[in-house]
Amino acid sequence: MASRLDRYEELSRFLRTRRERMTPQEVGLPESGRRRTPGLRRSEVALLADVGLDWYTYLEQGRHINVSAEVLDRIAEVLRLEESERRHLYHLARKQFPLVDTNQLSKVTPELQRFLDSQTLSPSNVMDARMNIIAWNEAYCALNGDLAAMSERERNFVWMTFTSPRFRYVKGDQWELHAQRIVANFHAG
Predict the structure, then answer these.
(1) pTM, entire model
(2) Fold held by 4-92
(3) Which residue among 21, 34, 149, 164 is least crowded, i.e. fewest CB within 10 A of its CB?
(4) Domain ranges in the chain?
(5) Which SMART domains has this protein been placed in (predicted)?
């Protein structure tokens, strides 16, 4: 079994080699002239994966940092890792490979949407594995705002809990307890 240090060195090498095999054009970035090194820059991977540059740099340097499964998924998506490579990335980062493919789009059946719509007096929603609200009814919108007008990020239940003044107002005195539960679910998931 490889030592902890070897694992971080391997994580560093793995991320660097996968980054270097990508071109800016493959990920939709404009050509920016001559490059000193092949492939994407660290800053480009960080931007596309929606993580901080310093944080991604630390990860690629093999520093001991805690990384979430969601961030690993975003990095894997940017680097266009195949299934076996994603598993290897999770192994190196000491994360449990998700049993549910968090990159797969969740779909709401017409029957489920009809059921939600029939709940006229009960605010109801459906969330995916990442706590994105993917379906809702009018009663939910009356309470929390027009979700159809929100961006995908704003429709994330964790995001909404901590950034929406309206959501905080609706929860009232129970907001802090609700927030603790959301954080616990987020860490557990």
Answers:
(1) 0.50
(2) 434 Repressor (Amino-terminal Domain) (1.10.260)
(3) 34
(4) 4-92, 110-188
(5) HTH_XRE
